[in-house]
Amino acid sequence: EAQVTQNPRYLITVTGKKLTVTCSQNMNHEYMSWYRQDPGLGLRQIYYSMNVEVTDKGDVPEGYKVSRKEKRNFPLILESPSPNQTSLYFCASSLGLDRGKYNEQFFGPGTRLTVL
Amino acid sequence: DAKTTQPNSMESNEEEPVHLPCNHSTISGTDYIHWYRQLPSQGPEYVIHGLTSNVNNRMASLAIAEDRKSSTLILHRATLRDAAVYYCILRRYGGSQGNLIFGKGTKLSVKP
């Protein structure tokens, strides 16, 4: 089954304790992205990756890191989490962004993170 | 990306058609109109997209105004499973990010 998986689905942690949220897709997609969703603010892009070893900042990258060493995986790293990073996180993937190529984004189930 | 305007909420009865409107008066010629929906406790999922012509797929239909300043997502027979937040999004192809700019969307309630 074509899907985007995220782990963990739920995480409660404390300020300053490094954590990684994993994201994996099995559709051979080139493009991957991380969003966070907050009440009243909607979904906002954190980082994205056009392909292996190619990553760039989205709208709200502060406090986050990403890496793309393999095509299927795109982990989100919080080196020193803070309470304002408490949020619902979604990973998404799609085919490449060539002009004219349709590129529906597939979203993972979400990771609910609480930073105390 | 150009902005879209949607009603905050709508109600429908089960098995009746639902028309979800979206205004995008500042749309440019290269903007595609995308619709996604987010079911409770799930990630967003793609519904449909179009450029100028009306589009149909197994989930819904998309009616695009001739001047492209508005569009309507049509669910032909609403089911309880269609209760979700529906997002109308404009995406300019050829851009470098592929970012989906989600607005607040329309929360659709379906009554049995």
Query: What oligomeric arrangement do these chains adopt?
Result: heterodimer
Gyration radius from CA atoms of chain B, angstroms: 13 Å
Largest sheet of chain B: 5 strands, mixed
pLDDT < 50 runs, ≥5 residues of chain A:
none
Count every beta strand of chain B, where a strand is a DSSP E run of 2 or more residues.
9
Number of alpha- plus pi-helical segments of chain A: 0
Strand order of the largest sheet of chain B: 1-9-8-3-4
Distance between the termini of chain B: 37 Å
Assign the structural class of chain B, choosing from mainly alpha, mainly beta, alpha/beta, alpha+beta, or little secondary structure: mainly beta
What proportion of the residues of chain A is helical, as a percent range? under 10%
Strand content of chain A: over 45%
- How much helix, percentage-wise, in residues of chain B? under 10%
> Count of DSSP E strands of chain A?
11
Which series of helices and strands of chain A comes N to C?
Answer: EEEEEEEEEEE
Structural class of chain A: mainly beta
Low-confidence stretches of chain B: none
Shape of chain B: globular
Strand-helix topology:
The complex is a heterodimer of chains A (116) and B (112).
Chain A: E1 4-7, E2 10-13, E3 19-25, E4 31-38, E5 42-51, E6 54-57, E7 65-66, E8 76-78, E9 87-94, E10 106-107, E11 111-115
Parallel strand pairs in A: 2-11
Antiparallel strand pairs in A: 1-3, 3-8, 4-5, 4-9, 5-6, 7-8, 9-10, 9-11
Chain B: E1 9-13, E2 18-23, E3 31-38, E4 45-50, E5 55-56, E6 61-64, E7 70-75, E8 84-92, E9 106-111
Parallel strand pairs in B: 1-9
Antiparallel strand pairs in B: 2-7, 3-4, 3-8, 5-6, 6-7, 8-9
